[in-house]
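=== Discrete structure encoding ===
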Amino acid sequence: MSRENLELVVASWPREVDVVALLADGRPLIESFAALSRDVDVQFVANAPGVPDARYRGAQGLSDGWRDWLEPYASYRLAAEEFIDAGQNVLILARVRARTHRDGVLVEHAPAAICTVRDGKIVRARFFLDRDQALEAVGLRR
């Protein structure tokens, strides 16, 4: 089943997208990611002590979560680099090149996401700023 999960996520995840532009048209993100469950559990994993993870639910929650995260950015170009089969989960290693609204500061980093697949749908999406934290979450290390 894990091979099918990997293929499902690879087929539905954009290779490169400016998430700010994608959200600008007001459509829920679920329309851009066809394999997402309408009741998807979304988590933005905090990478700072004492800062709670941001949690959202459903298609609107996914869009709201990204809007909250992207508030300081004029652009946020997200490029998928690698998809890794992790059983029920698929780990996505990505690169981000973003620019802030206020001062036009260029921000580059290498985040990751974990998609949990059940019954042919992505039922959970976790977004990590720290790749090592994501690798550990699926039982892998580099």
Notes: The two ends are 24 Å apart (CA to CA).
